[in-house]
Amino acid sequence: MKKLSMLLAMLVAIGSLGFAKGGQQGSGSGSGSTSQGALVGIAMPETHVQRWQKDGANLKAAVEKLGYRAEVAYGDADQNRQNQQIQNFLTNGAKLLIVSNLNDGVASAIADAAQDKVPVIAYDRLIMNSGDYDYYITFNNLKVGQFQGQGLETGLKLKEASPDAPKYITLFAGSPTDNNAKFFFDGAMSVLNPYIKSGVLKVIGPYPETSADNANFQRIATENWQAPVAKTRMENLLNNDAANVVLDGVLAPNDTLARAIIEACLADAKYADGKLPVVTGQDAEADSVLSIKNGQQYMTVFKDTAKLAEAAVLLADQIIKGQTPSIPGATLASGDIASIGDTGKKRVKAYLLEPVILTKDNWQLPLNAGHFTPEEAARLK
Ligand code: GAL
């Protein structure tokens, strides 16, 4: 009996030693969990897209609310930099990582985390070509794209249109290195392709039917979701392929790029003074919601990123505590969208939240949901 209690005492000591390695020994307070005060590393992709500034802040707050410590770092279009940031988290003794990557060059850093037995949650963007992690949490990205397709369908009244008076659109996609960009595009094209086939809709510029047409997809993709890249491409289109038509719509994959495309249009006399094409978007960024309110951008997709952050941190907490994850409000991808969790090396568990389509009719939704900073909210009132 004495031997057993000594053994138990030793095991407890070893357990807390392992924990102290990172200097994060638990306080033992609250739920009594040894994970209190442990470090969670949060690696975010880019600050030039407004949504990610919110995600970083939301995640940090949610992590701290559960009694962990949080460190946030932004890779800012540089995967090497993000890998270094991930290494720093590991050196600092992180207990878990939440990672939104830039490209699959992140896989080596994820392998290092796995070697250190530090679990990783891919946040919003799947980490491709890695078999070294198990969890992914995101929105239903195919549905995001379908909403964008439906935005054009409604905005251009495609159901009532005829091939005798076709509508003209041009296509943009997100970063070719971001797996989400393919889902957004394929979702949108699943709505638009039938209208293109029937001649109701005509595409100006490259027309990949799906993202699987890699050569054409690359031509419409926007490296690192950079607004200046989309703006320049739109200016070139307006001066060349679209010089002799009036564009009725533009498939834009997110708000940052939608606004850049609108800027290019506004500089062209054909589209100035309320004659903008129907432009789609995503993220319900304050500037775009304002643009929708003012009748410029046509729609966006509201992804409640505060909810995503909360769900991701709940998942993190359950993983750290060795519990079987159960995330209210999220469904586990299966059936025809199971591939949302397919990294090319393994199928990870993908938890999906629901996006919401946003137009002039319901633009207040994110405002009421507390999605905006007080400064942004004031601009929208
Ligand atoms: C995607 C993300 C979008 C969008 C984009 C640009 O991965 O799902 O919400 O913001 O990145 O950063």
Q: How does this structure look, described?
A:
The chain has helices at 2-20, 50-65, 79-91, 107-115, 141-155, 179-197, 214-220, 227-239, 255-266, 286-293, 305-320, 365-368, 374-380; strands at 39-44, 69-74, 96-99, 120-123, 135-139, 167-171, 201-203, 249-251, 278-279, 300-302, 331-332, 349-353, 356-358. It has 381 residues and is of the alpha/beta class. The protein folds into 2 domains: 34-133 and 304-354, Rossmann fold, CATH 3.40.50.2300; 141-302, Rossmann fold, CATH 3.40.50. It has a 7-stranded mixed beta sheet with strand order 2-1-3-4-5-12-11, sandwiched between helices. Strand 6, helix 6 and strand 7 form a beta-alpha-beta unit. The protein starts with a helix and ends with a helix. Residues 1-33 have low confidence and may be disordered. Beta-D-galactopyranose binds next to loops.
Using brief descriptors, characterize the structure shown.
381 residues, alpha/beta, Rossmann fold, 2 domains, 7-stranded mixed beta sheet, 4-stranded parallel beta sheet, globular, binds beta-D-galactopyranose
